[in-house]
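Pasting as-is:
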Amino acid sequence: MGRRWVVLGLAAAMAAGFYLYQFPLKSYITQQKLYELLAEEGVAKEDIQIQKVLKDYKSARSGYVMYFTVKESPLDYQYDYSFKINNWMRGYVSEGTIYSSDKIIFNENEE
């Protein structure tokens, strides 16, 4: 009987470790990578407001999708980071449609 509890406890610990690695830790890493990416464009971390981070189960990229805004930009952004291939798919959302863009847009005439 005691042996079962040890095996069950070990299985629960492994499941918890997997969950922590797959979700909160990778989500945090993705957020840090976003801050680094946007810093290259001159956008400060404090100017980025992340709305949500979602695990992308539908895509073969196995990434995380981040929805965020940037101070002084009129647009909402949706960036998808892939751990498998270590790259971003970048875009912004306008009137419900996602458009590809490799930069943060501060003036709507730039689109």
